[in-house]
Every structure is written in C-alpha cells, then in structure tokens.
Amino acid sequence: SIMALHRLLIYCSSISVAAALTLSNTYDLLIVGGGSTGLAAARLASAFGKTVAIIEKRPRLGGDTIWNGVAPSKALLSCAKVVHKARDAHQFGVDIDADDIKVDMRRVRAHLLEVERRMYEADNSRQTLQEQHIDSIIGEASFVSRKEIEVLDDGGSVVTKLRARKGVILATGARPRRLDGKVEGLEDVSYLTYED
C-alpha cells in the first residue's frame, strides 16, 4: 500500500542503531526523543556550537506534529475548506452543482502522505539534521548514569553507549491512553485515537 511504502521510505532514511557505532559516542548534549521539542532543542544547541545527538525509539523523527497531529489535521482541514468553498461558490457568481462534488479519499490520503514526506525531508530527515551538525540514532535509550545512555535495539541488546558532557534532555512526548477494560462496553465497539 502507499502508506506502507511511505513508512518504509521514512525508515530507510533514518539512521539505524547498528550504524550508530560509526558516530561519536561523546556529545555536549544528548536528547532522548525526536519529536518537535527534541528537534527544537537539538537545533538550538547546535546553533550555539554544541555537539548534539538525538536518540529516538521510532524509526522516524518529527513526532506527532508531522505524523499524527498538526500536519495531517491541517491537510485534512484544507481539503474540507475547499469542498465547503466549492459548495458556497454560487454566492460569488460561480455555478457549481454541489451534488456533483465528490471527494476521493485515496487522493486526499496520498496528498496527506506527500505533505508529511515534504515536511520530513525539509526539516527532519537524517541528511537535514547532519547538515545542522546533529546526529540522529534510532533505538531505545536506557540510562546508565546521569550523563550516560545505552542505545538498545528492538531485541534489547546494547548497540552503543553515549555520553553527554553537559547533560541529557528528555523530550519523549506522550502517547494516547488506551481505555480497554476501563470504560464499560468499550470492548464491544471500535474506537480511534489520534494515532489511528
């Protein structure tokens, strides 16, 4: 599917934990979390000449702003506004049969994926971050001490150990709370979270 291919391309453009072995293991600042807050902190530190590495558990940077929140909702809202304006076009002397307006959700979804891809490549791709002197490492961060982090692969094996000269910023974001078993009758219906 288009979505699976899109996710694969994002994954392939990220640095894997195995590739992290070629990076420096000591930085001025380590940032756990590659969402909007982690990226902003990394860019600010880099702008001040600090060496920075971001450790992100998921194989894509950008967080919910790009993938689940602001960008997708604004792209969908733009589509809805176009349909609404087309239906009200008669007010401006433009004759459009409102009953003939059709929305092709596959094309809307393709547009949404393209918006996500462009935002990712422009701001959050590995190449863009490298140009800003920021290393990005995909893996799970596990603290060894206040300024030392082990990066684990999916199986829980240590791939590399990183050290921060100055400190570590935790910018891990949030996850939707699953309500299974906590709301009577919920197991009888399907529901969506912002990640769905």
TrEMBL record:
Superkingdom to which the source organism belongs: Eukaryota
Gene Ontology molecular function, alphabetical: flavin adenine dinucleotide binding; NAD(P)H dehydrogenase (quinone) activity
Signal peptide: 1-20
Family annotation (PANTHER family): MERCURIC REDUCTASE (PTHR43014:SF2)
Database matches in InterPro entries: FAD/NAD-bd_sf, FAD/NAD-binding_dom
Keywords on record: Signal
Pfam families: Pyr_redox_2
Protein name: FAD/NAD(P)-binding domain-containing protein
Residue ranges occupied by any FAD/NAD(P)-binding domain in the UniProt entry: 27-190
